[in-house]
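Hey, I'm writing a tutorial for new members on how sequence and structure tokens pair up, and I'd like a real worked example in the thread rather than a made-up one. If someone can provide the structure for the chain below, I'll link this post from the tutorial.
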Amino acid sequence: MNSAEPVARLASIRIYPVKSLGGIEVESAVVEGPGLRDDRRWMVVDPDGLFLTRREVPAMFGVSVKPEGEGFRLAAGGRGSAWIPRVAAPGESAPVRVWKDEVVAVSGPSEADAWVSEALGRRCRLVHLPSVSRRAVDPRYGQPGDTVSFADGYPLLLASASSLADVERRVGRTLSMDRFRPNLVVDGSPAFAEDDWRRLSVGAVRFDGVKPCKRCVVVDTDPVDGRRSDGVLRALAAFRRWGGGVRFGVNLVPRGPGEVRVGDDVVIR
């Protein structure tokens, strides 16, 4: 499909400064090679440097992240809070692991490590991905030189409001888009039309839609209270299973820097 006419509009933008912790809705965001600026540049790891996510640590659902000064405030009900900078100060560095990837990360503030360990009920620490560390996108779907932050595999995730409405109809209840943790949410397009968006622009920024995103049991968990209720993944699996996984949303790789804003047109190239 080639069209100069908008097929949708950008309805909301979300960043997740710390992988698997709370997100922040913003009106605009700077697009960089590894993803939106400040998105998943921090991560929680165990003492061996292995990444932790809400898949295996449900307490992560309860940690909110809010912008504060030149950094972010992490908080959990009744457990106080801790502050981390946008960019970690130069200091101790060590390799950490995200899925099969090993990358060198910088240690965060020791007081934040102590706080997050208490909040999650296990020994862990916060690490930051410095700009000099390069984590490559899966070469089967990206181009040489494509990089990603601490996100699961790709720089951005786009989801559609109409696709969510379709899933809501199938499960018979209202669902928060936060279950799917997208960066960009669009509206105005038919449900699941985004599956076929191979090259697109959001405002002035161009992207490749590299593949629909594979989902896991996290989508069955309420993003506010962390309560598990089966049904969402099963509903998706009934009509969205192919290629060895259940799919919702589309992974994007940016094809140049720029800025996206709520209200931007989405155009297929």
